[in-house]
Design goal:
The protein is mainly alpha-helical and about 90 residues long. It contains three helices and no strands.
Length: about 90
Amino acid sequence: MFSPTFFIDTFQETKRVITNKIITDPTLNKAAHNYIDAQTTFAKMLANNAMDVTKYSVDSISKVLFPQSVEVTKAARAKATKAEDSAEAQ
């Protein structure tokens, strides 16, 4: 609910309401709204890019700091197989 787009939309809607109160000429009001719409699009693009870069960075760091899978070498596999065989023999 409280994502960056929520705050962007709230702030831009406030600007639209103020613009409607201050600018009474329909042509100027339309131009002001078009400008606010362009600002909104740009701000949302920046917020989405920042979120994507942040997610990518955190995921990359998490993979390094907390690896999910451990690769087992051939020697470790052979040792484990040998241990299982000797346990079954007993």
